[in-house]
Each structure stands twice: as C-alpha cells, then as structure tokens.
Amino acid sequence: MSYTSDLVDSATETKEQLVSNLRRVVSDAEDLLAATAGQTDSKITELRARAKENLLVAREKLADADAAMRARARQAAAVTDEYVHDNPWSSIGAAAALGILIGVLLGRR
C-alpha cells in the first residue's frame, strides 16, 4: 500500500469514528425521548416532538454523509492508485522528498 492510501485509510477511519460517535449520540437522544414518554406537560410534549423530528433528519443526513464519505474515499484511492501506476518515478520522487522533509523536521527536535 502506498503512503497516500494509508492517509486515505486513516482519514476514512477517523470519519468512521465520528459517524459512530454521532450514531451513539442519536441513540442516546432516542433513549432520553423514550424515558420521558410518560411526561404529559405540553412544553415537554412539544419539545419531544421537535426532538423526534430533528433526530429523524439527523439520522438521514448521517446516513447520506456516511455513504458520501465512503464513495469519496474509494474514489481518492482509485485515483491515487491510477496515478502511481501511470507515474511510478514521480511517485517515488515525491515519497522520497516527503521522507527527507519529515527526517529534517524530526532531526530538529
């Protein structure tokens, strides 16, 4: 695997963690709504209705964002793979330059 593929995988993993955390928040909010189901105060009933509606919208957007993120990651990996195969020496040179830059920066510490 190339360095760029590793970066794409790392970014995808970070985004997947974010999506997972957001799903957990939505789930906790749904649990909170269920726990307050017995409350009949008009203000609480109104807030519960708005929260339910917002949770539905959040769930839909979360699913859309997850699908879009996965598609972009696959596309970036495919483009990177194609570029590396078409330009192997340029890729080797760029990786070497990046390695030297990282080495110099770490050497300063």
Automatic annotation (TrEMBL):
<keyword id="KW-0997">Cell inner membrane</keyword>
<dbReference type="Pfam" id="PF19029">
    <property type="entry name" value="DUF883_C"/>
</dbReference>
<feature type="domain" description="DUF883">
    <location>
        <begin position="16"/>
        <end position="65"/>
    </location>
</feature>
<comment type="similarity">
    <text>Belongs to the ElaB/YgaM/YqjD family.</text>
</comment>
<feature type="transmembrane region" description="Helical">
    <location>
        <begin position="89"/>
        <end position="107"/>
    </location>
</feature>
<keyword id="KW-0812">Transmembrane</keyword>
<dbReference type="GO" id="GO:0005886">
    <property type="term" value="C:plasma membrane"/>
</dbReference>
<dbReference type="InterPro" id="IPR010279">
    <property type="entry name" value="YqjD/ElaB"/>
</dbReference>
<dbReference type="Pfam" id="PF05957">
    <property type="entry name" value="DUF883"/>
</dbReference>
<dbReference type="GO" id="GO:0043022">
    <property type="term" value="F:ribosome binding"/>
</dbReference>
<dbReference type="InterPro" id="IPR043604">
    <property type="entry name" value="DUF883_N"/>
</dbReference>
<dbReference type="InterPro" id="IPR043605">
    <property type="entry name" value="DUF883_C"/>
</dbReference>
<keyword id="KW-1133">Transmembrane helix</keyword>
<keyword id="KW-0472">Membrane</keyword>
<keyword id="KW-1003">Cell membrane</keyword>
<feature type="domain" description="DUF883">
    <location>
        <begin position="80"/>
        <end position="109"/>
    </location>
</feature>
<protein>
    <submittedName>
        <fullName>DUF883 domain-containing protein</fullName>
    </submittedName>
</protein>
